[in-house]
Every structure is written in structure tokens, then in C-alpha cells.
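[Automated response] Your request has been received and processed.

Submitted sequence:
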Amino acid sequence: MKGRSHLGKGLDALIPSVDDTVVSDTVTELDVALIEPNPFQPRIVFGEESFEDLKRSIEEKGIIQPILVRPIDGNRYQVVAGERRLRAAIALGIKQIPTYLKDIRTDEEMLEIALIENVQREDFNPIDLGKGYQRLIDECGLTQEEVAKKIGKDRTTVSNLIRLLKLPEKIQESLRYGEIKEGHARALLGTSNAQAQETIWRKAVKESLSVRNVEQLVRKSQNKDKAAGARKLASRKSALLTKKESKLREKLGTQVKIRTRKGGGTIEVAFYSAEDLERLMDIFEGIKL
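Generated structure:
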């Protein structure tokens, strides 16, 4: 992928410098009407409160940090970094915005830069972070280890956030919008039973449960599942033994009981007279071993 060596530096790769990938290392004022949003924007949720804070800051002090864009066909541009600033400028009716231009020639490079720039921000919610990491893996061909290195995190952090994507969509949305914390979500991963996860999640939201409370409920659910599984297994074994007993009774013409114990068991064959015993012995002796 073109530009990979620059991308390995994380956000440093986004700071314009005098090299062959920078169209202009000076600030250029561009009409906002000429700038398109980033089609690879990994951020799904833009916090309303923080967005309003950004608008107030721009109203008071202007746009201090230029956004980064790439030129595309038809004398138009796409945002690489700074989409919130562009959205705020449009909302405020600002016609021009300070920009740096960077020559990003492939969509793959655009995606990687956009993801890395976004996932390094502290205000990113855990679900969008996890989705961003997963996209770097799926669409940019990176490993979890490589993702961790690029964003300056350890691999465990990356892995834990990606695991959150295994939760039901309702729970992911709840975490995305702050109804529950990441600790609650990670505790829910303690069970793979989606129905149990949703039941515990609803209780956690309704009763404002702590992470420890959720962990306790998950453990109880696991114990319940194990007990139910043991009963189901015992039932299956019982049905199987009953079938085998029936088959032996039919073959031997008498009552048969199969009793199991750890590592083995016994087969009890009933006889009701000396003649009955002799009959059974004839059957057993006729069995070819």
C-alpha cells in the first residue's frame, strides 16, 4: 500500500511536511462547498455536546487548526482529517476553511489514514473504536499486532475492543451512546448466551448496576447454563441406556438393567429358575467372541 512507511508513525504521518506527498505545506483557504466528507469516516457518532463546544470555540477564536484534505477530480477535495471542524464551519455558515493539501492517491491509503487519525482520539466510543480496528484488519490487511503498533496501544487493548463487536447489536448501541460503560460490556462477554446477555444488560440499564453486579449476574447465568447442560446430558444418557436395555431384554428374553458409574458400570441380567439360568448360559456360550 502506497505511503505505508508514513502511516506507521501514527498522527505524525498526518502533520504536513515538505516531502513528495504534500501538495502544499502552507495553509490554503478553500471554499467549504468544494470539500466533500470523508467516505471512509469510521466515526459513526459525533457527540452533540462536544460538537456544540467546538462550534462555540470556532465562533470565538476561529478555526485554529487547519483541516487536512486530498485533491480529487474536478477541482474538488475530500477531508482526510478534521471532518468535525468542517461540519462545524458549515453549521456556522462559514464559507472558507483553512486547509493543508496532501496527495493521497489510493482509497486504501485514505482509509488507513482516516482510521488511524480517528482511533487515536480519546473521545472515540469503544464500539466505533472496535469497528475501526476491525476495518484496519479487514480492509487494510493488518494484523492486531500491526494495528496496535500503528496506534500506539498494546495488542490486548485492540483485541478487547474488537471482542465487543461479538455482543448483540442492542448492547453495542447502548455502549456507543453511553448507557453502559466498557466494563459492563466486557463483563457481559463472560457468557456467550445472547439471550442471557440481553437480559442482564436490560437489568443493568434499568437498575444502574455496577460492573461488579453485572459480573455476578453473568456468573450466576453461567452456573445455571452448566446445570441445565448437565441435566440435558443426563437425560440423553438415560434415554440411550433405556434403549440399550430394551434391546438386551429383547435378545435375552428377561429383565436387564444397565448401571453406570464413573469410568464404567455393570449389566444385570435377571433369571427366575435354574432352567432360565441354563437358557441364558446357552445364549452366552453361543456368542462368538
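Summary generated for your ticket: The mean pLDDT is 81. DSSP finds twelve helices and seven strands in the chain.
If you did not submit this request, please reply to this message.
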